[in-house]
Sequence to fold (224 residues):
Amino acid sequence: EDQVTQSPEALRLQEGESSSLNCSYTVSGLRGLFWYRQDPGKGPEFLFTLYSAGEEKEKERLKATLTKKESFLHITAPKPEDSATYLCAVENQGGKLIFGQGTELSVKP
Amino acid sequence: GAVVSQHPSWVICKSGTSVKIECRSLDFQATTMFWYRQFPKQSLMLMATSNEGSKATYEQGVEKDKFLINHASLTLSTLTVTSAHPEDSSFYICSALPALRGEQYFGPGTRLTVT
Fold:
């Protein structure tokens, strides 16, 4: 069964305190791994797509990496505006996205 | 680019009535659109996949006669919740898949409350 598990469920950081979010997955034929950001009451906002192990993508303070079993979203020197829920999803061979439960990130000034 | 809109953003309806939610891709054409449901503090669950000009494909456990999906054009898909009940109250989110690109772009969501 295709499955995505994110950890931790919630993460509280001080502004400037770097950390990483984890996304572990099992999927029948990975077509892509996606990171999204979701603010309360809003739809997910696309961040990154990773397709193969070893691939890395960066955008401002965020960097996503991928191995054969997991992905990490590294947040460097976060700011309060980075507070949101970060969702990881994998696309299976059927073209469907399977989402993890998300990590709720809170960055305090 | 890749903007998806939903209308309405929130709706309150009485039990037994029907509600229609629109999903539009504003600056691209989408042969495939998806409908998700999200309960509080939970992740997105795929309800159905909608392809332009053909019948939607529903996920297991989703009643196709209750959640009617129409994808009449390359920029518009609609979800109609028929005979809504309080347990249908949820956050409904659509996404659209641009041609030649791998990532889905999501709408802002519609908060449905059934009283």
